[in-house]
Each structure stands twice: as C-alpha cells, then as structure tokens.
Amino acid sequence: IAIQHGFRVLEGACFETDRAFPYSVVLDLLRGIAFDPFTSSASVSSEEERWRLFRDLTRLLIDLAQQQPLLVVLDDLQWSDDNSLELLRYLSTHPETPPLLLIGSYRDNEVSASHPLALALAEVRKAVGRLVDIHLGPRGAKPAIVFEGENGDGRTLTYRQLTAEVCQLANALK
Hints:
Elements: E1 8-13, H1 24-29, H2 47-67, E2 70-75, H3 82-93, E3 100-104, H4 116-128, E4 133-136, E5 145-148, E6 155-157, H5 159-173
Parallel strand pairs: 1-2, 2-3
Antiparallel strand pairs: 4-5, 5-6
Helix pairs in contact: 3-4
C-alpha cells in the first residue's frame, strides 16, 4: 500500500541469533542499496566510528527522502542488538533525520520493562513526545487492534482501519 502511495519502503528483520551481531538489522535494512557502512579499516565498535556510521546513515536517509517519502519497517525488534537500538534512538531523536514513517514490531510478551528495547522506546518517547503503540491481539483472534495514539484514546480498529490510519500518517509526510 505504501508503494502505491509513492513511498520507498526499506525493510529489515531481526532474528533470535542477531543479538550477537552488531548492526544486523541495519545491514538487513540496507540490502539492495549501494551503501557500505563499514568502509573504514577502524573498528566499528570505536566511538568515533560509531558516530561516523550514524552520520553517514542519516545522510543516506536524507538523500533517499529527497527522492520520495520513506517508510522504514523493522520486524521482531525484541531480538535487535544493542548497537542497532542505539542507532534507532539516534535516528528517532536527531534533528537532521529526514521525515520518515518508522514502523517497528516486537513481541511484547518477550519485552520486560528492563529489556533494551523497552529502555530505547522510553528514551525516544521522552525525547520526541510522540510514539504510537498498536497492540495486536493473538493470532487467530478477531482482527482488532488497540490503537494508543498520542492522546491515549484506546480506540479499537480493524486491520482495514489501521491501514487507513497508516496511510493518513504517510500522506502527512509528503
């Protein structure tokens, strides 16, 4: 649907084994794009290299967003590595990050209050003041979603209504 609305869609997924591999979701997200975030001979774990990577990825997103609106979809973030979560915090709060629609999914039954993802989301929510939480029911249940928007209105939506909400958010970025 996003592509039909003129968006470029970047997708990345985390897997249970990914927590051991730095930036695994970022590498998955960038497959098919001519961008090598690790061109330097220095270790990516060094502080200077990490900020260079964040800056270069922000510049790439700026370039892509100038061509067309961006939708970034990240799946199973409960398994994301700490470096990728730090990058997501940076992109979510840095003033130079271009407008983009970021959708991240995770299994809330696997994310405690002390989980690195929960901590990252709390930091982003505090910094930007606006995150939308969409809680999906269990598989096989009646298709309904509790939508906790910035007003915490707790509306219940069908999947069709959710799609309309996402399209409305996406159109606001154009």
